Description:
The structure is a homodimer of 222-residue chains.
Chain A: H1 8-24, H2 30-37, H3 42-55, E1 58-60, E2 68-70, H4 72-79, E3 87-96, E4 116-121, E5 132-137, E6 152-156, E7 166-171, E8 176-185, E9 188-192, E10 201-204, E11 208-220
Parallel strand pairs in A: 3-5
Antiparallel strand pairs in A: 1-2, 3-4, 5-6, 6-11, 7-8, 7-11, 8-9, 9-10
The structure holds a DNA duplex (30 and 30 nucleotides).
Amino acid sequence: MNTDKLSDRQRKILQFIGEFTDANGYPPTVRDIGHDVGISSTSVVSYNLKKLVKEGFLEREDKVSRGLRLSDEYREFQVRFSPPEGLRFVPMLGRITAGELLEVPAGDITLADEDDIIEVPEDMIGGMTDDVFALRVDGTSMVDAMVNDGDVVVLRRQQTARNGEMVAVLLKDRGETTLKYFYREGKQVRLQPANPFMDPIYVDADNVEIQGRVLAVLRTLL
Amino acid sequence: MNTDKLSDRQRKILQFIGEFTDANGYPPTVRDIGHDVGISSTSVVSYNLKKLVKEGFLEREDKVSRGLRLSDEYREFQVRFSPPEGLRFVPMLGRITAGELLEVPAGDITLADEDDIIEVPEDMIGGMTDDVFALRVDGTSMVDAMVNDGDVVVLRRQQTARNGEMVAVLLKDRGETTLKYFYREGKQVRLQPANPFMDPIYVDADNVEIQGRVLAVLRTLL
DNA sequence: CCAATCTCCGCACAGGTGTTCGATAGAATT
DNA sequence: AATTCTATCGAACACCTGTGCGGAGATTGG
Lengths: 222, 222
């Protein structure tokens, strides 16, 4: 399913039908559609609706007023980009290994079709909405962060952090990334492991580069 | 909200509107309703619809064909405890501390109104539906299970486990509960810490009592 | 370059659809 | 017993609504 074969008008029609139905609880009439999309003739709307039915985006009951609904396929196609209430879709953008450079994505972080997507309850990431992505942890090198092989780390891309937040930091001199609690202490930075039995490390502030803030760690034992 | 004040006919109308809309994607006409409920005159249907609007069960757009929908209150009254698609509500039943006995709830595990409830994506708990509950981890005594203070452990109550599953086990002689990977080895049981740098412990099979299986560990850094 | 197809328009029409009205009969009220 | 209220019916009406038709401009393919 993909909307490439459709004209702009047809895409607009589909969207309008969805919004109208959600807003009112019943679908629009041919004339409602025409008015919204900017079509003066009802026959033209009819014409485009037939197309949409033919392409499988729409289902329609002949001669029944408001007798149309978005097809299940199209609904599903839509849903990918608009999760249900309380859920948020987070793109899974790759893997991390401590001891190697973290691949922090550069451009816009969006849900593309090809992405792996994980579902995260909204309140688990504190309502964060932009620049949120997930990485799967590769290997056991992050045990001191209490993060295990296979865990999923949900991050928000940001360059600064407040004391006490857990961040992904790059240690420039070692060319190495770790997950630690961040504390600024004068010219130094204290990086505190999550594991309370392990000792912090102190590094020069110039030597650390914050890659992102850790919002959550998810471990699924299947 | 309750349907006591309604006549049988009106209840039937409400139900029909819901079913029709679900089935077709658009609401029925006045005549559709009349036909289903057994009313010959459209005016009588109109009459009863007005009543339903007045009582708050229905919302209606005047003079608009099929311009009706069940009110939010009535819909809620219908669905009450069902979480949104893809989410599952899991009751948070207490706290665990390694080194102490795990409070495994005894009776039915249901969503009571007073419970703390956390939201978990369905596929994160592998579609498990019964006997699932959550506990908050108290203290740092479970570091060897890679579980930190404040983490949330999602469990399914069960008495048996397959090899390789992570379980909450009671060590009877010590009167102590831990989270470990479970491996049956003859008359012994090998309990393997999640932390790959820690050694397993071997105990007599009679000495372990499985309390539940760990489905997921959730850590939120707020 | 011409024919075929696509996309659009306005208009007219038939049937769908909500509303209104007058009437009836039983129940509740006075 | 008279009156009012409730619930129903059938019929008529006006407007809503989807469809069909003839035509026009744009685009495409040979």
